[in-house]
């Protein structure tokens, strides 16, 4: 089992629109493509309150590559993304890490 940690830094004033895109489109499209979210967080205390952090669960890298490729080329996703970014990008930076739990992790 692998986990993907994604951290999005929202463009100024765009965090509500980023949340709306996840609520209105992304989560449904994740489900369609078999992408399993573990959780979503905003930064309560930390260096930036303009961050959306989320964690995805994968069986292996091959599954991630296949499902992420299908999601990222889905015409409905491309349209939702384009419409949500009509007035400019919603993010200024995206960080991405693939994590493997240790043998003593409660997640194994």
UniProtKB/TrEMBL annotation:
Gene3D superfamilies: 3.30.70.100. Residues 3-106 form the NIPSNAP domain. Signal peptide: none annotated. InterPro entries: Dimeric_a/b-barrel, NIPSNAP. SUPFAM superfamilies: Dimeric alpha+beta barrel. This is NIPSNAP family containing protein. It comes from Planosporangium flavigriseum. The lineage of its organism: Bacteria, Bacillati, Actinomycetota, Actinomycetes, Micromonosporales.
